[in-house]
Design goal:
heterotrimer, A alpha+beta (548), B alpha/beta (448), C alpha/beta (409), A: FAD/NAD(P)-binding domain, D-Amino Acid Oxidase, Chain A, domain 2, 3 domains, nine-stranded mixed β-sheet, six-stranded mixed β-sheet, 15 helices, 24 strands, 33% helix, globular, C: 409 residues, FAD/NAD(P)-binding domain, four-stranded parallel β-sheet, 16 strands
């Protein structure tokens, strides 16, 4: 049993939670963030990668549009190393209502979203693969973000201000003193230990799972509707600029270059359970068709990996409960004091990653109000560790870095140019890291071979470094490949089938991994929605949709 | 457009603007007589980029290309074709950061070996052109001017040759222009092929109809014998050989990243060859120039001209053409005996045309002649690669096994289909090296 | 029989060409790229798992055939498998050795034990059931594809006393990241072998067997035995992920031998069409640069590989195609790809259906042409990498096709 004591516990390590713990810590509170898994495994790890210029919302949700425009500039400044300043294009394809483009332009002016109309010829010169039938084109300040880099940046900033980040700690209960929250009980999923954190305040940033946490504090009927959407990463950057269709927000209307891939998305279907997020075949076909509208020949390009994420949408009375596309993206703060008579807890839900910092500010302001303490938000003033304002991410970074260390270091993940030093540094920083934990930091296994060549090297090196033994290495290898498969099998066609065939030739035909001695060790237990389970089970880890 | 004011890292729009400006400035600061006008915004470049860049999706990382690369085999300075081609391409955007790609010799063996259809060498050639746009050495510009060299050297052949064989002069050349002192240099001839052709009368009347002969720069000024032998064999077979006015195919410019010049050059050549007559077969003993017309100009530079497609479809390398006749049953076997075992090396750019090695089958039609195929990937010269002082040692290492094989097989004669490879082999081994047509010429009794 | 075209330079194409040459045919082999043998483990599989591990493949073959009537082995019959295996064994000579009808059980580069029927003689000292001499797994700092600790750890769990060491011995100066091939080239030189033997010898304990990555020479055939002699201890190679040298040794030997026998070798051009006249195949079109080249054919052996070579393909609409000639593909019914990675994906059993002469069949089970044959990975009905049956299928079908062509004359 471990105990902690702090001012604020933040539940949920997505962009909102990471933003909150940073803000709270920078305002001088002692804080602990808990997440049942790694940071950014929920919605933040499964989104499109877009740092909105606001253009998408100028007509449909003008308030959001303005917020995006302002926050875009701030995030680019404070998280420069996670942000690529790609720029964005809004294009009127032959499928789009040309009249809308006038509304779009007017909406940008009204909401303060920077925009510039350019000629179709100039747009096609800049992005030669875009549909040559486009009739209008507008340049905006869309950027792209690596969600994990961003979240860890915020978390590291919080740590610099004294906060603690406890990943793999699942919340199992909230203790009350009278009608006030007084402690949060967790299980450390890696060690099995019970953990109690005494605190003054809980900020519930658990996104699509926040109703579970609210429930634990006696706050019932919190309705957060998971709006599920799929995204497909294409094997290379078909474009270097974010391409948006100039239309009222619809499915599959954006193509986003992030790192070395281009991501098409997304759909919007109400899900029942945020831990059950399938990637339906009809939605895959729909995304490929949408891709064809933006980039003729899209279906001949190589689909690399797909995932499903759930937007946490607060149910509101304006739209039908089934139509998650049109629920407000605006953030909602649930004041449990007035709503449920419970003090010391606030829930925040909704919103989008681009405005995460503002969301965090709003809820921490509200917390300070409730505590009767006036402390200023400074999160916009300072860059997070590892980021220098103005030095944004360039896709050429790793190629440049490997060029410099080519003779002295090994490249372990060749597809994504991850060096051995990068891997061993991460392994020693977190010896209990699973391969997916490492992947989120390093992009191991996220390139064309999807772990075909690098996963054996990585588990072998972990073994060589003494971080894990052979049995655990076997288990981690199987787990990693199983997790990669979740995002592969729904989009497996064309070139990726060839890759899978070669990968199977290596794993089974050459290495015979299926006949390794079976590991007795269990890895991540089934991710939990609510109650704790015994961690000493000897069953094999199940593959679930929720692990990303 | 409100730009993020950022001195070090620019937005895409600003980068493009800067790159455009940069190219203008580079041009005006050159000391050379010609202006470098590499313009990546030409419409063609996108066609090539798209074709090759799209093909990177086929890469499954099987490493077969790496196992075949002759440069990666001899130096860790080059990370190999998989690395610099489909792998690095996913990270490229604008300014080049991976300068080690320049160690690629563009031999094309990677593309040839790839079972998945990745245009590996072509990806690299394009990336090199982008890299060179930033800083093109004047040497690479001059090396591309093969016709100029030929025209300039022919009138002063003995002097030119003496200079090229003079060690102190070569050392100075190496320091100033970067051509290695030991690199094989072409031998200037006193008489160009065209002047021979002007004075030449066929030995017998034509019975089979006209064909067009493309001699190439080397065949025009340096390897005139090869051109003469080719024409005489074709005439012996009954063809009327038309030799139109013709220039360079642009290959040397292309392999040095001078795409704008190369495109102009190759288009001009296509017009000249087409002017000789519609639908005629074009024959060339210049294996690498043949490859340029058949596929390289399109695959590397994206030239999509109907004139190029036409010429590319009608051109045949000499051995290829003779074996077509053989397969039709119309190649006379009136060969004299030539009792000899000769080492034969198929150049990379010949292999890259996907027709196998017709020279072997052709030569073995000659009674008594035994051909030993080199079994080696590359002689190292790779066009102009091995001439460069910083690449010379790599090139020689690449070719060493071939040189040993040649000397071991027959120290008196070797056979190879392209001129720069012949120069490389003979310079490095001392063994005289000829085009296969020269043995055919001898076997038909045409040697005087 | 005169002109035969073999499409594909993998092991099926190579063995088919070899059999045809032995019968006196004039063979043209057309291959788009270097064939898959280049990447193989350097051994010859007949049947490794059915699904339990197989000890003597020819003892269980009849049962396997009865249980798998769609499998190429069932179409071919057990005798054909034996014939193909014997032919391959003879062709490769002492580059492949057998174990008296028993599968070898050899350690892999992750430390699993893998059955194979014929193995490179450089590997058999690692046979897992041959007594329990202690074993030292020898890694190299500069070789990331051979992780000695992991291998040794897994061997220990399978009752093989093993320990791991890692030598710091670059293959080339100032190169921290080398492949197995880079090492194998270094091992072609006696001086490097001497250095290696010296460094390893210092750490080798008396009575230990050394398991090294498969780097003991590329072109130098005597490199392995020389190294073993210098070491004075039993040595065994373990095959690596690509670039894998053992497969290259076999591929280069086979290609060289066939080219020396004047098989017309066309590398780098796709076969794009098959022409017929009077209900027989008469020629193929090869896409040489700039123009199509027509190659006459009295018979065609079509061995272009399966999904890994792109000859079989699944498009984005879910349709399975044979991509070069558009031949009819047999596809298993039901879902082709499913969520459980560790269970079989039926997609990979798709392929061409053939009769017992290896003639390609259409959807009504009639030969497409009497002189069009198929062999190897393009055939339907097998899961070669999990069964460990790839080479056996390739050889049996290649020999059967070649012999059927001989009978056509």
């Amino acid at each position: 049993m471990r105990t902690y004591d702090c001012d604020v516990v933040v539940v949920g390590g997505g962009s909102t939670g990471a933003g909150v713990v940073r803000d709270v810590a920078m305002r001088g509170y002692s804080a602990i963030l808990v997440d049942r898994a790694d940071l950014g495994q929920g919605t933040t790890g499964r989104y499109h990668g877009l740092l909105h210029s606001g253009g998408r919302y100028v007509v449909s949700d003008p308030h959001s549009a303005t917020e995006c425009a302002e926050e875009n500039a701030i995030v680019t400044r404070i998280h420069a190393s996670a942000v690529e300043a790609t720029g964005g294009l809004f294009v009127s394809t032959p499928e789009d209502d040309l009249a809308f483009s006038d509304d779009f332009l007017a909406g940008c002016h009204k909401t303060g979203v920077p925009v510039e109309e350019i000629s179709v010829a100039a747009a096609l010169k800049r992005e030669p693969r875009v549909n040559p039938g486009i009739r209008r084109a507008f340049l905006v300040e869309d950027g792209t973000v690596d969600g994990w880099q961003m979240v860890w940046g915020a978390a590291r900033s919080a740590q610099e201000y004294g906060a603690q980040i406890l990943t793999y700690h699942a919340v199992v209960g909230i203790e009350m003193t009278g009608s006030s929250v007084s402690a949060v009980r967790c299980i450390d999923r890696r060690s099995g230990e019970d953990v109690t954190i005494s605190c003054r305040f809980v900020i519930n940033a658990a996104g699509a799972w926040s109703h579970h946490i609210a429930e634990m504090a006696g706050c019932h009927d919190v309705e957060v509707v998971p709006g599920r959407g799929i995204m497909i990463a294409m094997n290379h950057r078909l474009v270097n600029t974010v391409i948006n269709r100039c239309t009222y927000p619809a499915d599959g209307d954006i193509l986003v270059p992030v790192h070395t891939v281009a991501i098409i998305g997304t759909t919007d279907v109400r899900a029942e359970d945020p831990d059950e997020l399938p990637i339906p075949a009809d939605e895959v076909q729909q995304m490929l068709d949408c891709g064809e509208i933006l980039i003729p020949g899209f279906r001949q390009a190589r689909a690399l990996h797909a995932w499903s994420g759930a937007r946490p949408l607060v149910k509101d009375s304006r739209v039908s409960a089934q139509d998650t596309r049109h629920m407000s993206r605006g953030m909602s703060i649930l004041d449990h004091q007035s709503r449920d008579g419970v003090s010391g807890i606030l829930t925040i839900a909704g919103g989008k990653l681009t405005t995460y910092r503002l969301m965090a500010k709003n809820i921490v302001d509200r917390m300070c109000e409730q505590l009767g303490e006036e402390r200023e938000c400074r999160t916009a003033d300072e860059a997070v560790p590892g980021s220098t304002p103005g030095e944004t991410y360039q896709v050429t970074h790793r190629l440049h870095d490997r060029e410099a260390d080519r003779r002295d270091d090994q490249i372990i993940c060749e597809c994504e140019l991850m060096s051995r030093t990068m891997l061993t540094d991460a392994l020693h920083a977190d010896p209990q890291a699973s391969m997916d934990d490492l992947r989120r930091h390093l992009r191991l296994g996220m390139g064309p071979c999807q772990g075909g060549f690098c996963s054996l090297r990585a588990t072998g090196i972990a073994c060589a470094e003494g971080v894990i033994d052979a049995e655990l290495a076997n288990a981690r290898l199987h787990e990693f490949l199983a997790h990669r498969w979740i995002g592969l099998w729904p989009i497996l066609y064309g070139d990726q089938v060839r890759q899978t065939a070669l990968d199977e030739w290596i794993f089974q035909g050459l290495l015979d991994v299926e006949h390794l001695p079976e590991p007795k060790v269990v890895l991540e237990p089934v991710p939990l929605g609510v109650a704790a389970q015994s961690l000493q089970s000897t069953t094999e880890p199940e593959t679930t949709e929720a692990v990303r | 457009m409100s730009a993020k004011k950022d001195p070090k890292k620019l937005t895409e729009a600003e980068r493009q603007e800067r790159d455009a400006d940069r190219r203008e400035r580079l041009v005006t600061s050159q000391q050379g007589p010609k202006v470098l006008t590499l313009n990546l915004k030409e419409p063609d470049i996108f066609a090539a980029q798209r074709l090759n860049r799209e093909s990177l999706d086929h890469c499954v990382k099987c490493t077969i290309c790496e196992t075949q690369c002759p440069v990666a085999a001899v130096t860790p300075l080059f990370s190999g074709p998989k690395y610099v081609g489909p792998q690095a391409e996913r990270f490229r955007h604008g300014e080049s950061v991976d300068h080690s790609l320049d160690y690629c010799s563009s031999c094309g063996i990677c593309t040839l070996s790839c079972p998945q259809g990745v245009q590996i060498a072509e990806l690299n050639s394009m990336a090199r052109a982008v890299m060179k746009a930033d800083h093109m050495p004047i040497r690479d510009f001059l090396i591309g001017e093969t016709v100029l060299m030929g025209k300039a050297m022919t009138p002063i052949a003995p002097i030119a040759n003496a200079a090229l064989n003079n060690k102190p002069i070569r050392i100075v050349m190496e320091k100033i222009i970067g051509v290695h002192r030991n690199a094989p240099m072409p031998t200037a001839q006193s008489q160009s092929f065209v002047s021979w052709a002007k004075r030449h009368q066929p030995a017998k009347p034509a019975t089979r109809g006209p064909v067009v002969f493309f001699h190439g720069c080397a065949g025009g000024y340096f390897e005139v014998q090869t051109s003469i032998h080719t024409v005489e064999v074709l005439e012996h077979l009954g063809y009327e050989v038309i030799i139109p006015t013709q220039g360079c195919c642009g290959l040397a410019q292309q392999s040095n990243g001078l795409f704008t010049q190369a495109r102009k050059t190759v288009r001009k050549l296509c017009d000249q060859l087409r002017a000789a007559g519609k639908d005629l077969t074009i024959i060339s003993s210049s294996g690498s120039c043949t490859g340029m017309l058949k596929h390289e100009a399109h695959e590397i530079m994206g030239v999509d001209d109907p004139a190029l497609i036409d010429v590319g479809s009608r051109i045949r390398e000499t051995s290829e053409f003779l074996m077509e006749l053989e397969d039709e049953g119309t190649l006379p076997h009136t060969f004299q005996r030539v009792d000899m075992t000769v080492p034969y090396h198929a150049p990379c750019q010949l292999k890259g045309q996907g027709m196998g090695m017709p020279a072997i089958r052709l030569l073995e039609l000659i009674p008594g002649l035994k051909v030993v195929e080199s079994g080696q990937a590359c002689c190292g010269i790779a066009g102009t690669y091995g001439l460069k002082k910083e690449k010379y040692d790599v090139a020689q290492a690449v070719g060493q096994a071939l040189f040993d094989m040649v000397v071991d097989t027959n120290p008196d004669l070797a056979v190879c289909d392209t001129e720069t490879c012949r120069w490389q082999i003979s310079k490095s081994t001392g063994v005289p090296t000829v085009h296969p047509i020269s043995l055919v010429h001898r076997a038909y009794g045409l040697d005087k | 029989m005169n002109d035969v075209v073999v499409v594909g330079g993998g092991i099926a194409g190579l063995l088919s060409a070899a059999r045809l040459v032995a019968q006196g045919a004039k063979v043209t082999l057309v291959t788009f790229g270097v064939g898959g043998l280049q990447l193989s483990h350097g051994g010859f599989d007949v049947l490794g798992y059915a699904p339990e591990r197989v000890d003597r493949p020819f003892d269980v073959l009849d049962d396997f055939i009865a249980a798998n009537p769609e499998h190429p082995y069932a179409v071919l019959g057990a005798d054909a498998v034996r014939l193909g295996t014997d032919f391959a064994s003879e062709f490769f000579g002492d580059r492949l050795v057998g174990n008296d009808g028993r599968n070898w059980l050899l350690p892999t580069a992750v430390g699993a034990l893998r059955p194979t029927y014929l193995a490179s003689p450089t590997m058999v000292n690692a046979e897992a059931r041959a007594g329990h001499d202690p074993v030292v797994v020898v890694g190299l700092q500069q070789l990331k594809d051979f992780q000695a600790e992991l291998i040794a750890g897994n061997l220990v769990k399978q009752q093989i006393p093993a320990r791991a060491i890692v030598l710091d011995l670059p293959a080339r100066t100032h190169e921290a990241d080398a492949s197995g091939l880079t090492y194998a080239r270094a091992m072609d030189r006696a001086d490097y072998r001497a250095d290696f033997a010296k460094a390893l010898g210092k750490q080798l304990l008396s009575g230990e067997k050394a398991l090294i990555p498969a780097i003991a020479g590329h072109h130098e055939a005597a490199a392995f035995t020389d190294l073993q002699t210098r070491l004075g201890a039993p040595l065994a190679e373990i095959p690596l992920p690509p670039p894998g040298v053992p497969g290259m040794r076999l591929n280069e030997y086979a290609s060289r031998r066939l080219q020396d026998q004047r098989v017309r070798w066309i590398l780098g051009a796709r076969v794009v069409a098959l022409h017929s006249e009077g209900g027989r195949a008469v020629s193929v079109d090869v896409a040489t640069s700039g123009h199509l080249t027509k190659v006459r054919a009295d018979a065609v052996v079509y061995a272009p590989g399966g999904f890994e070579s792109g000859s079989l393909s699944l498009d984005s609409h879910g349709k399975v195609l044979e991509t070069h000639l558009g031949l009819p593909v047999r596809v298993p019914p039901g879902r082709l790809i499913g969520p459980d990675r560790r269970s079989e994906q039926p997609l990979f059993r798709s392929g061409l259906a053939v009769d017992d002469q290896m003639r390609v069949l259409d959807d009504a089970d009639r030969p497409v042409y009497p002189n069009l044959f198929a062999a190897g990975g393009v055939l339907a009905g097998a899961m070669r990498w999990s069964e460990k049956s790839g080479e056996g299928i390739a050889a049996a079908s290649a020999v059967r096709a070649a012999d059927a062509i001989g009978d056509l004359a």
